[in-house]
UniProtKB/TrEMBL annotation:
Key word Acetylation present: no
Biased segments, Polar residues type: 24-55
Naturally occurring in which organism (per UniProt): Turicibacter bilis
Entry keywords, A to Z: Signal
Name this polypeptide is given: GerMN domain-containing protein
Coiled coil (UniProt feature): none
Chain ranges of the GerMN domain: 95-204
Length: 228
């Protein structure tokens, strides 16, 4: 009889031990899941302040450009994405020009073609192509935008040009200042910002007025006159 009682107690003890372990394991699992969830949340909260703006650079092989990986045409399928027509949108934009003869800033409202959302590049090309007055100072044909970023925290639009930008600024001091102001007004107005920084090969550009105290040019479009 005593052996039977001892055996029963042993069985009951083993059953209670099994039930006691289960919640502990469940608590440990819940704790690990909570820790993982906290790590995922922390990672998702880290965001960069700068927004990259897509640019479609129409440069030849001898000019500066961002590195691109080229693929062998023989390995490409006839139905590859390279054969598809680029996404192009028309957008009414305001282009600013400096008139040398009248020493006056003018603006022209025109429809520009924006390819693959590369708006900065579209504005740059429009400034080259839509010169309505021989006295307007415009950007050099060999000059193009390599990249552009909008710093959302500071509100500065950063425009990066290739080295040919210097060909566009081979002007007198007063003319160069007017040309730079026209560029800044064009980019700033259409992006609705009042601060534009210009870089040439990743170096902050300084015109003949000297370095900008805050590292950017202010948009000064209020004195511009509509060109008729």
């Amino acid at each position: 009889m005593k052996k039977f009682i001892v055996a029963m107690m042993t069985c009951l003890f083993m059953v209670f031990s099994l039930f006691g372990c289960s919640p502990a394991n469940e608590q440990e699992s819940d704790s690990n899941q909570a820790a993982q969830s906290e790590n995922d949340s922390s990672t998702s909260d880290q965001e960069e302040n700068q927004t990259s703006i897509p640019e479609d650079n129409n440069s030849d092989s001898n000019t500066d450009s961002t590195n691109k990986t080229e693929s062998d045409d023989s390995n490409q399928d006839d139905n590859s994405d390279s054969n598809q027509t680029p996404n192009t949108q028309q957008r009414i934009s305001r282009l600013y020009y400096y008139d040398i003869e009248q020493n006056q800033m003018f603006y022209v409202d025109k429809e520009v073609d924006v390819i693959e959302n590369a708006y900065v590049n579209a504005l740059t090309e429009a400034l080259k192509e839509n010169q309505d007055n021989k006295d307007f100072v415009t950007i050099n044909e060999d000059t193009f935008v390599t990249s552009a970023t909008l710093d959302e925290e500071s509100g500065i639009l950063n425009i990066y040009f290739n080295e040919s930008f210097h060909l566009s600024t081979n002007l007198g001091s007063g003319i160069e200042a007017g040309f730079i102001d026209a560029l800044v007004n064009t980019y700033g107005y259409n992006y609705n910002v009042d601060k534009v920084a210009i870089y040439v090969q990743n170096k902050l550009y300084e015109d003949q007025r000297g370095p900008m105290p805050d590292g950017y040019f202010k948009v000064t479009a209020e004195d511009a006159v509509k060109y008729e």
